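Give me structure tokens for this 307-residue protein.
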Amino acid sequence: MKSKLIYLIILLFITISLHVAGQKAPQLLGISHIAVKATDVEKSVAFYRDFLGFAEQGRLNNLDDGSLQLVFIKVSDTQWIEVFDGKRYEKSDRIHQISFRVNDAEEMRSYLEKNGLKVPAKVSRGQIKNLGVTVKDPHGYNIEIQQYTPEGWIVRDQGKFLPETRISNHIAHAAVIVDDIEASQHFYCDILGFKESWRGSADGKELSWLHVKMPDSPDFVELMLNPTSDPHFCLEVPDIEKAKAKLMRTAYFPNYLKPLDTKTGKNQKRQLNLYDPEGIRVELMEPNTVDGKSVPPSDAPFPQKIK
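Here you go.
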């Protein structure tokens, strides 16, 4: 009788585990925002506002002492950049947070919990009145899930803070450095439901990048396999040369001391790398390849130092 009870308990555990493993991740609608840290907030805000042409949507203060917490830089009606005062976040990467948009934050919170991730007991309502929950990816990056609400800033400010000076209207991807590819694939693909869309190699000898894309959005995360690479995010532009010319016409340009060099990447897309005052790379990239043909994924092996 005892052995039969143990058998039934084991069977129940296996059944529950298989059910959880077979669950489909709640839908991801796209990248919501990228948060960067700054030692000098106003200096970084000037880069994104006066050089890249975005408008400041608003500011939030820390609730405990009223000091500045962050500045919102609006990219589109669904995306933005947050510039955080880095003093309180010394342990996080310069890319402080990557946020994904969902229809139901609680549904995603519950799903992540069932899949073994450490999550808060409930979603929270932020100062901008959206609902959200934050988890850590395997490499310590803050991954925030955001649900836009009717009373939130995103809905409130539809059509506002969108000047013609904007260099882009789309954050196309975010890039993170990984040292355990299996853990990354499990988190982004097995749990969150991303699908591998491309892999590339800088030298043809070993893989350098792995792209994992949201199933229902063109947005993706770039898993960077070289530990010396720069975490960065990408702003999509229709024409890289026109974007460069636009930058050069800004009043900010004489103060930008790095070269504006356009190049064609291994994915055969033209790009231009910019660096904000903290050294965070902001990659401008065209959506299409130079010849309109897709580039096959690399068949190079993973680096030996990557698990």
